[in-house]
Amino acid sequence: MSRFFSEKLSSLEPYTPGEQPRDMVYIKLNTNESPYPPSPKALAVIEGEATRLNLYSDPTARALHEAIAAHYSITADRVIASNGSDEILAFAFDAFANGKSLAFPDVTYGFYPVFANLFGIPYTTVPLDETFTIRVEDYAHIDSTVVIANPNAKTGTYLPLSKIEELVVQNRDRVVIVDEAYIDFGGESAIPLTDRYDNLLVVQTFSKSRNLAGARVGFAVGCAELIADLNRVKYSFNPYNVNRLSMAAAAQAMKDEAYFDECTGKIIETRSFIAEALTKLGFTYPASKANFILAHSDKIGGKELYQKLKAKGVLVRHLSDQRITDSIRITIGTKEQMETLIQKIQEILEDLT
Ligand code: PMP
């Protein structure tokens, strides 16, 4: 730390992204990326767009907003795109919780406390129940802006739409941010509820179900007033927040419903396959509606299993949260990748005996 660094930020604990190692080629199941390439329609527009890189991207992101709005049958003034959903989460925290407080689950996306600390927002964590599921009743009397991930990050557990509505109704005077990074793997989005509730903001990403993690595109949907608030923050920070190539690719990815259905369908199918295989090996896991599974074995600790898998060329995520530190989080890859993973786990378990 230099002697110039802000004292206010000196205790900041930054977010730790999953490893992106270069020492060898791994089967990479550690950051919940899609194992499939972007939509061919998205790839097809990048080259043409590249010839216009001398020009700034459209600060109003009109074409992308319109593609998202058409997909969800809403008007484009209820959408705001961002540089990854991390950015729109940061804008939302700043817009709706700065000067107030935040509440989120004890085991959830690791960026929530990081952003809260960055903006100096006090927060409380609310324990998930024993099945690692959010209990919406626990948020009824909390006088804070609420942020949850649905499906929940790290655990994959899911709340049906009726529960999300309960959460929104019981917090009508606070903004409820529902982070749907993983909603497309079998969940039902709360976006239709934003027609009726002015305190609901739904955040989504192109990084998972639309195979564009490297393009960095996310977005939020809410009532027009919430989106106008977020635009005030965006235009005070970085008006050209989504670059030209990513914007064009994301608009095409949103329109390519057939490819989206194909990729998400394969991941959902492979999730059932890996869940069954893990059960046979004696693992337990919370039911997941995400593109990952949080798996636990009584035979081997999470950290040891992670290390042994890495040595065998398979990268999963070991997380340090106390309640799940004995588990590994496995991103759903291709069927072939999952078969290799299962084979390597089998070898590791056999070596223990
Ligand atoms: N929310 C959740 C719950 C996530 O797991 C992630 C991915 N790490 C994000 C948001 C951010 O994704 P991105 O910035 O790639 O859109």
Task: Please give a quick description of this structure.
The chain has 10 helices and 11 strands. Helix content is 36%, strand content 13%.
Notes on the structure:
The N and C termini lie far apart (47 Å). Helix 1 runs antiparallel to helix 7 and helix 8 packs parallel to helix 10. The model has no long low-confidence stretch (mean pLDDT 97). The radius of gyration is 20 Å and the shape is globular. The protein folds into two domains: 126 residues, Aspartate Aminotransferase, domain 1 (Alpha-Beta Complex); 217 residues, Aspartate Aminotransferase, domain 2 (3-Layer(aba) Sandwich), CATH 3.40.640. Helix 4 links the parallel strand 3 and strand 4. The chain has ten helices and eleven strands. The strands form three sheets. A seven-stranded mixed β-sheet has the order 2-8-7-6-5-3-4, sandwiched between helices. Strands 1-10 form a two-stranded parallel sheet. A two-stranded antiparallel sheet has the order 9-11. It is 36% helix and 13% strand. The chain is an alpha/beta fold. It binds 4'-deoxy-4'-aminopyridoxal-5'-phosphate. The site of 4'-deoxy-4'-aminopyridoxal-5'-phosphate has 12 residues, from helix 3.
Name some characteristics of this structure.
36% helix; binds 4'-deoxy-4'-aminopyridoxal-5'-phosphate; 7-stranded mixed sheet; Aspartate Aminotransferase, domain 2; two-stranded parallel ribbon; alpha/beta; globular; single chain; 11 strands
The SSE string, one letter per element, is EHHEHEHEEHEEEHHHEHEEH
User: Which molecules other than protein and nucleic acid are bound?
Assistant: 4'-deoxy-4'-aminopyridoxal-5'-phosphate
Strand content range: 5-15%
> Which segments are poorly predicted (pLDDT under 50) over 5 or more consecutive residues?
none
Spatial order of the strands forming the largest sheet: 2-8-7-6-5-3-4
Q: For the residues shown, what is the average pLDDT?
A: 97
Radius of gyration: 20 Å
Structural class, from helix and strand content?
A: alpha/beta
Task: Indicate the percent of residues in helices.
Answer: 25-40%
Number of helices, counting only DSSP H or I runs of 4 residues or more: 10
Number of domains: 2
Q: End-to-end distance, in Å?
A: 47 Å
What CATH architecture label of the largest domain applies?
A: 3-Layer(aba) Sandwich
Strand tally is 11
